[in-house]
Automatic annotation (TrEMBL):
Superkingdom of origin organism: Bacteria
E.C. no: 1.2.1.3
Protein name in UniProt: aldehyde dehydrogenase (NAD(+))
Region described as Disordered: spans on this chain: 9-36
Keyword Oxidoreductase set for record: yes
Family: Belongs to the aldehyde dehydrogenase family.
InterPro entries named in the record: Ald_DH/histidinol_DH, Ald_DH_C, Ald_DH_CS_GLU, Ald_DH_N, Aldehyde_DH_dom, ALDH7A1-like
Subunit structure: Homotetramer.
Pfam families listed in its UniProt record: Aldedh (PF00171)
Annotated active site: 262
The organism of origin for this protein: Neolewinella lacunae
């Protein structure tokens, strides 16, 4: 495979044909090796951050914060604008790295970099809109207002499935708010983190910025644990499993720090009697198999009106037969590999569980073998009919496994959808306005995202992204999510010659 994109991103090629990424704190003794799920080949190695290096990173970040917070927000926005422009220049190369290191289709890899560019544009505008409030005081010749200040260091722990976009959601908004950040990318996609850091380094140098504004650390859970227990890091934004999120929440909560958690999803599409079948097929299929089912917004469940159940089942099964599975950098293919063989093992275990509880196989699964599938990470997207109370359907399996179940009334369908522990994304396919409005009402979806006539997967950066229940409750990206990265301060100013107390309290000497 042509690996020119690695060189463009500052990932140097060694004599053995692999590449080595270096973070800002290099430990020559211990490395993470990144193997591509596409072909099983070693892409490169990155140095693992030691405890001493971690402390040095934090100290440098603390010093950089004192400088960065003093720069006017619109000027900080200008730096972010330049980073967005640099991403435009490297979009093809970075998108190819995302696809090759993570395994998602090239279209999705490019799309993820475009999402980074979009959030930079959003953050640039936001840098002139960090608004507070003014309030009328009950005391004469007083005024009150609220303002927002940066927190300091924002710790970012990201997952493998979106190895660059989720970091940018957090970091670009945090930067215009006046924060600095320390990022621990997934150990399953570390080179993407190094590439983003290399691009940032060029922008920082062009603007004569000090080191320590954007920082990268690498390693396993222990490196992340250093951040979660560190009182010098007031906010931890973590993306990953619900199990991981509960640990992070307890650890950071114990020191009264702040968390922003984006955790598991078990997303459903309700398909009503009036649904447009063309929209159903496109939304359900991409939602179920895009990124090989490894999105937190992937469609896991189809809840179908009993009058359309057989039609949806049969047409979707036929569409599965047209999927092309293979090298995700080949744009003729729809589905790439799972991230690694551990993910394959979880996929196979889930299928065993579905069959054990009596699920009906509509499209069978399995691991693909032969030419082009040497990595052992390519699997067949599969499709099962289950009962509404299926235990397997209540659990999120990060793989292309889809469940279908019937319903009789919309109230029943909404109850089925809301019955799972997770609450991230949801959708309804209907041409009936009453059905869509009920779904969006307080009596409808309990998810953070509720869509009408589009699928569960994929979100625009303008809306706040996140969910409820075991999804964590945090919000990233657009809307007013910037407030999570700042502290609110209420100010009262007395411009009189008296000192009246609030609530009319008298304290005369």
């Amino acid at each position: 495979m042509n690996r020119d994109f690695l060189q463009e991103l500052g990932l140097r090629a060694d004599n053995d044909g692999t590449s080595t990424g270096t973070s800002s704190h290099h430990n020559p003794g211990v490395h993470l090796s990144s193997y591509s799920p596409v072909d099983g080949q070693l892409i490169g190695r990155v140095s693992v951050t030691t405890r001493e290096q971690y402390d040095a990173v934090i100290e440098k970040a603390e010093a950089a914060f004192l400088h960065w917070r003093s720069i006017p927000a619109p000027q900080r926005g200008e730096v972010v604008r330049q980073y967005g422009q640099a991403l435009r220049e490297h979009k093809d190369a970075l998108g190819r790295l995302v696809s090759y290191e993570m395994g998602k289709s090239l279209q999705e890899g490019w799309g993820e970099v475009q999402e980074m560019i979009d959030i930079c544009d959003f953050a640039v505008g936001l840098s002139r809109q960090l608004y507070g409030l003014t309030m009328h005081s009950e005391r004469p010749l007083h005024r009150m207002y609220e303002q927002w200040h940066p927190l300091g260091i924002v710790g970012i722990i990201s997952a493998f499935n979106f190895p660059v976009a989720v970091w940018s959601w957090n970091s670009m908004i945090a930067l215009v708010c006046g924060n600095v950040n320390v990022w621990k990318p997934s150990e399953k996609a570390p080179l993407c983190g190094v590439a983003c850091q290399n691009i940032w380094a060029g922008v920082a140098k062009a603007n004569n910025l000090p080191e320590g504004i954007c920082n990268l650390i690498n390693g396993d859970y222990q490196v992340g644990e250093w951040m979660t227990t560190d009182t010098r890091v007031p906010l931890i934004s973590a993306t990953g499993s619900t199990r991981m999120g509960k640990i992070v929440a307890q650890t950071v909560g114990a020191r009264l720090g702040k968390t922003l958690l984006e955790l598991g999803g078990n997303n459903a599409i309700i398909i009503t009697e009036s649904a447009d079948m063309d929209l159903v097929l496109t939304g359900a299929l991409f939602g179920a198999v895009g990124t090989c089912g490894q999105r937190c917004t992937s469609t896991r469940r189809l809840i179908v009106h009993e009058s359309r159940y057989a039609e949806v089942r049969d047409k979707l099964a036929a569409a599965y037969g047209q999927l092309r599975i293979g090298d995700p950098l080949d744009q003729h293919n729809h589905v790439g590999p799972l991230i690694d063989k551990d993910a394959v093992a979880m996929y196979l275990k889930a299928i065993e569980g579905i069959e054990a509880e009596g699920g009906e196989t509509i499209v069978p699964g399995g691991v693909l073998e032969g030419p082009g599938y040497e990595s052992g990470c390519y699997v067949k997207p599969c499709f099962f009919a289950v009962k509404a109370d299926s235990k397997m359907a209540r659990h999120e399996t990060f793989a292309p496994i889809l469940y279908i179940m019937p319903y009789a009334t919309l109230e029943e369908a909404i109850a089925i959808q809301n019955s799972v522990p997770q609450g991230l994304s949801s959708a309804i396919m209907t041409t009936n306005m009453r059905e869509s409005e009920l779904f969006l009402s307080a009596a409808g979806s309990d998810c953070g995202i509720a869509n009408v006539n589009i699928g569960t997967s994929g979100a625009e950066i303008g809306g706040a992204f996140g969910g409820e229940k075991e999804t964590g409750g945090g919000r990233e990206s657009g809307s007013d999510s910037w407030k999570a990265y700042m502290r609110r301060q209420t100010n009262t100013i007395n411009y009189s010659t008296q000192l009246p107390l609030a609530q009319g309290i008298k304290f005369d000497l």
